[in-house]
Amino acid sequence: MIRKLFIIPALILGLMIGGLTPAPARANHEISRAILGAAAVGLLIKSYEDKRSREKARARAAAQAASRANHSHTRIPAGAARAGRDDPRQCLRQRWTPDGWVSYKDQKCLRELDRRRQQTHDRAVRHVPRSREKPRECLRKRWTNSGWEEFWSTSCLRDHGYRG
């Protein structure tokens, strides 16, 4: 990197000095000097623009990294975490409460997940014995802008032996 920044100006300087030295054949000397000067100026401008673009890219990458660091707690939309797979972990949500962040599984998302599984005739879900269903005491309700919403409490499900 440093070599490149040093070699380009040294090459330009050498070309400029070489164009100024007396030559035995003076024909077209002025034209060659103008061409070399234009090439030298072009190379200087190009190296300056390359440096600016690298600095902009570095600043943009730093800003994106800072943005990701500041927004690591944001909610992941349903299906984004494991697109194309029916995984209950994609229904995991987090919500801020006065006691801190609370994780829960969205009831609407889980119902949609079960509906999709039944449509694809997934035997493992269609033939679940009633003893393996989720305990009703883990079903919670909360008020949202669109009305009451039901969800499964992850800590309660974990206490009852469910993983995910």
From TrEMBL:
Compositional bias (Low complexity): 62-82
Top-level division of the source organism's lineage: Bacteria
Positions of region (Disordered): 62-88
This protein's name: Uncharacterized protein
